[in-house]
Design brief:
Elements lengths: L1 E5 L8 E3 L3 H13 L8 H8 L4 H10 L22 H10 L2 H13 L8 H4 L3 H14 L1 H12 L1 H45 L1 H6 L6 E3 L4 E4 L4 E5 L5 E6 L7 E3 L6 E6 L11 H7 L6 H10 L4 E2 H8 L3 H13 L3 E6 L2 E6 L1 H7 L1 H8 L1
Parallel strand pairs: 1-5, 2-6, 6-8
Antiparallel strand pairs: 1-4, 3-4, 7-8, 9-11, 10-11
Helix pairs in contact: 1-9, 3-9, 4-9, 5-8, 7-8, 8-9, 13-14, 15-16
Keywords: DNA-binding, Transcription, Transcription regulation
Organism: Streptomyces lonegramiae
InterPro entries: ArsR-like_HTH, DUF5937, HTH_ArsR_DNA-bd_dom, HTH_MetalResp_TranReg, WH-like_DNA-bd_sf, WH_DNA-bd_sf
Amino acid sequence: MGITLDLRNARSADVHVGRSALAELMSVLHILAEPDHHPEAQRWTRQLGTTFDDSLANEMSALSPLWARLRCRLLFPLALPLDQTLEGELRHLEKLPLDEFVDLCAQGVLGFREAVPPARLLLNDKEAARCYVTQCERRSFRRGALAHDLMASPEDVRARLINFLDRCGGAFFAAEWRAVHDRLEAAAMRFRTEVTRKGLAEVLAGLSPTAVVAGDGSHVRYDKLAIAEIGIGPRQLFLVPSVHVWPHLTIKDERSYPVVLQFAAPEVRAPEQLTLRQLHARLSVLASPGRMELCRHLLGEPITTSELAKRLGLDDTQVSRTLRQLREAGLIESEREGRYVYHRLATSTLLRLGQDVLATIMR
């Protein structure tokens, strides 16, 4: 599995490097929503939590599918110029045509890359909207609730989202953005210089220990759960450094928008990250690559056995057997909610095995 960037047609004019206040805020919200998966930031998140009143905390929870594992494309730069203020990016969201907002938001609410009906169908066909809500409910109760709100009144959801992000700016993010602003500008400048000096493929490959350069430098492949080949040129590539995204490397590929790659600014990356091959050798309890792949799907929001089976292309019996083995090893936790049993990775157990273990699975 993996995502490959095809650089054969890439020109310097197609590649843009810059900061995004909105994308950085999303990375902060992701950490706040999934603190167990970012143990290196736990002290910081506890301090940040004191700035939240109950209404802000409740809204952060309700909207959290948008900055959970796959992160909604709405919250990355949608067009040039980069380096706008948070207020400028929020105004762009406010003016986005409703169909475009619904298309991007609906995919973000669902989260995992599955086919979502286009906005024009969701907004005009009650059966299509009902099926979409059910699809989200299978992922989680929270996703189902937000999907229901989106289908009932997309303009209200947009207003809620913009109001929440604006309130985050006033409550805590404006100060955080001032603190990281210069570091991100330095990272962007360094990246531009290195692209000129070393070439785009080499610099892109340096963003992840899993990256492989192929085709005489014309392709760069990243080890990700998704499978895709993305052509750069004339389609634009936005490269967005982040202080808070580590250990993730986030690639967004919604067809009618520029490709976005959000990466950890060099000074905040860990000095060493294990590759999956090294990790398999160190962990006898996770000796099977198949179990490791399944664990990566279990990281983040709880997931049902049937949803896991669908993603992996296996039958429920095979997945149930593997889940039982992982549960017996203390590596997953299961909990019933209504008709469904949801499973998630026991990150505290993995953390005791080593922070590199958790960081490698989280990539």
